């Protein structure tokens, strides 16, 4: 090949630098009606470089490095990269030899042409050039001169095939890139030549540190793409591991967008939390909170109005921080709900024996937490560890065992509810706003479980009613039918819980106040309100003419039958001094119990969804007629 210092070679290097500038800088300013103008110019320069390299080669009397022109008989469906891992390290001539370096230069041009075509949405042409690069690299083994190219071309092919939903093909390329990196680092590990250095003057070559950074960044991209591939393949544990490694490497390399990184870390927490891995989930969220702070403060509304760019930045920051707040809400809610499941007895109340047992085990659990932290994949450098730890200290990662601990978790969750609602307001974000309210309600419900004072517990449920009932009544059922049904059912259950609490309180009282008119009126109000919302739910399933469905769809089967069962129970509990009203209530109760039994007889497959309710309904269908007949007999005798 011609001398590195020849005028012709310097012209090639200048063209390459111009092509890079057009691609990475000038293309950002291309007009909307010609979005790829700069990249098309870069492509022409790359083609000229390729022709010049072939000409230099021919002038030196060398054999064509690729054995043919670009695009000849290229494989397009199966990767040429099917050799064993050992092969890419040993096959052909050395990557450090003159011939190997010539192949690397031609391969690099094919690679950049491939990326150029993919960027301009010409995927078939892009694949062709990338496969040309692969074909060239087949002729030599991996070395410090070409390992970066080996990995980058496989990354690009992985992205290309993933974009076509050919996930397994993408997986093959990316896993090969991963194995090449690991093998190279094990057997060599020296800072490898970056592809751009093939066309750089000696005085412009990268430092060892910059080479390492670019190489490690390429491998970080491999990790990132593999995380997505494993997600699409349903390999969630593996995907989470690769996502965690990607985020850690991005911090180490200082190559990340703060808000994007924070959102990815917060999203990763949502994998850990449902699995009960609260230490990892909390760490992800705390790191997300700290890193998001690097994006700066949200511009004030006044500043945002002065600049379109600042206005857009303000909206993005507000939205992303609201999304992170919602992830924190889920953390607190799941922590409380898991603690409730662990501590409740067979009737849903606090099991004090279990509580004492877990308290005794708490010391050992806290000691193991530190060991777990050392084995977990932690984020950040020494500079950020303290900041992350300070955020983590604000909320526990062990399951709360009493009201005091549960309340501390609740307050953190409620604080993030307030933050999330500041952005997701009812005007413009109806669905999101209501979901946040439902989470807030669920936080109150979980906290109420730990409250021993029944009056205070009842007030917590009243807070739930106050936040949900106005929304339920105001929502347009035509557009938000499913959401209204959710709210109706939750309100019905909440009123029912309050009724049961009032009944328990009345039974505990030893004086005559237990049955005074005020207590009875309050009890009946809660009972009627619960029945009303259950009936609203059932009415929402009816046809426009008000006819109940003959067949209940699977998604509403259990809720509908449970609602019928609960309405029957509620009507039988209403207190009245009037025998006629009592008779009316008992008859309504009987009809609803009969509906559950008759529906399950007509649709045997439904019985499995409501086994307990069906058994009790059958029992009540047998008992209530006797009670009704006795009442009728007393009424007749009195008349």
From TrEMBL:
* Top-level taxon in the UniProt lineage: Eukaryota
Keyword field: Coiled coil, Cytoplasm, Cytoskeleton
Subcellular location as annotated: Cytoplasm, Cytoskeleton
Q: Which InterPro entries match?
A: KBP, TPR-like_helical_dom_sf
Start and end residues of each stretch annotated as Disordered: 57-97
One GO process term, biological-process aspect: microtubule cytoskeleton organization
Regions of biased composition (Acidic residues) lie at 59-69
Q: What main location does UniProt list? A: cytoplasm
Coiled-coil residues are 300-353
According to its UniProt entry, the function of this protein is described as: Activator of KIF1B plus-end-directed microtubule motor activity. Required for organization of axonal microtubules, and axonal outgrowth and maintenance during peripheral and central nervous system development.
Known PANTHER family for this protein? KIF-BINDING PROTEIN, KIF1-BINDING PROTEIN
Q: Which family does it belong to?
A: Belongs to the KIF-binding protein family.
User: Which protein are we looking at?
Assistant: KIF-binding protein
């Amino acid at each position: 090949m011609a001398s590195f210092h020849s005028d012709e070679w310097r012209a090639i290097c200048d063209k390459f630098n111009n092509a890079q500038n057009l691609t990475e800088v000038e293309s950002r300013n291309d007009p909307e009606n010609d979005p790829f103008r700069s990249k098309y110019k870069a492509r022409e320069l790359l083609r000229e470089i390729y022709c010049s390299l072939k000409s230099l080669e021919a002038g030196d009397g060398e054999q064509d490095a690729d054995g043919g022109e670009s695009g000849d008989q290229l494989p397009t469906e199966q990767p040429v990269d099917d050799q064993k891992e050992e092969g890419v390290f040993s096959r052909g001539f050395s990557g450090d030899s003159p011939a190997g370096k010539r192949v690397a230069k031609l391969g690099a041009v094919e690679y950049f042409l491939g990326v150029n075509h993919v960027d301009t949405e010409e995927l078939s042409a892009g694949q062709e050039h990338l496969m040309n690069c692969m074909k060239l690299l087949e002729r030599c083994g991996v070395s410090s001169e070409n390992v970066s190219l080996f990995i980058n071309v496989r990354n690009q092919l992985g992205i290309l095939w993933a974009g076509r939903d050919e996930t397994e093909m993408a997986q093959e390329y990316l896993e090969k890139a991963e194995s090449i990196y690991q093998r190279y680092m094990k057997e060599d590990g020296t800072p490898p030549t970056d592809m751009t250095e093939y066309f750089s003057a000696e005085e412009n070559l990268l430092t060892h540190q910059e080479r390492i950074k670019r190489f490690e960044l390429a491998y970080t991209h491999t990790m990132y793409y593999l995380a997505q591939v494993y997600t699409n393949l349903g390999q969630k544990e593996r995907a989470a591991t690769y996502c965690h490694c990607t985020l850690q490497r991005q911090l180490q390399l200082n190559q990340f967008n703060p808000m994007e990184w924070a959102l990815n870390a917060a999203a990763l927490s949502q994998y850990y939390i449902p699995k009960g891995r609260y230490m990892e989930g909390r760490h992800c969220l705390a790191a997300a909170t700290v890193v998001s702070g690097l994006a700066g403060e949200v511009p004030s509304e006044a500043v945002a109005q002065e600049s379109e760019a600042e206005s857009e930045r303000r909206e993005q920051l507000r939205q992303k921080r609201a999304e992170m707040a919602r992830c924190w809400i889920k953390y607190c809610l799941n922590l409380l709900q898991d603690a409730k499941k662990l501590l409740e007895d067979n009737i849903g109340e606090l099991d004090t024996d279990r509580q004492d047992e877990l308290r005794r085990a708490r010391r050992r659990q806290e000691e193991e937490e530190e060991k777990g932290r050392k084995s977990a994949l932690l984020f950040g450098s020494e500079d950020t560890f303290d900041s992350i730890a300070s955020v983590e200290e604000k909320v526990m990662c062990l399951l709360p065992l009493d009201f005091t601990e549960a309340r501390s978790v609740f307050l953190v969750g409620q604080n993030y509810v307030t933050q999330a609602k500041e952005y997701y307001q009812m005007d413009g974000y109806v669905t999101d706003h209501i979901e946040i309210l439902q989470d807030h309600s669920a936080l109150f419900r979980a906290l109420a479980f730990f409250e021993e004072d029944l009056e205070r517990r009842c007030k917590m449920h009243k807070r739930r009613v106050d936040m949900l009932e106005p929304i339920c009544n105001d929502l347009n059922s035509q557009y938000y039918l499913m959401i209204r049904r959710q709210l109706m059912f939750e309100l019905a259950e909440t009123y029912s819980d309050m009724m049961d609490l009032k009944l328990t309180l009345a039974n505990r009282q030893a004086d005559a106040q237990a049955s005074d008119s005020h207590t009875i009126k309050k009890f009946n109000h809660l009972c009627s309100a619960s029945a009303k919302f259950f009936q609203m739910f059932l009415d929402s399933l009816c046809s426009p003419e008000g006819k109940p469905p003959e067949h209940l769809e699977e998604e509403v089967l259990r809720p509908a039958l449970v609602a019928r069962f609960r309405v029957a129970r509620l009507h039988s509990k209403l207190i009245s001094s009037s025998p006629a009203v009592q008779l009316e209530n008992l008859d309504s109760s009987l009809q609803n119990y009969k509906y559950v039994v008759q529906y399950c007889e007509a649709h045997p497959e439904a019985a499995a969804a409501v086994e307990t309710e069906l058994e009790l309904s059958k029992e009540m269908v047998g008992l209530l007629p006797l009670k009704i007949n006795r009442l009728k007999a007393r009424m007749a005798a009195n008349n």
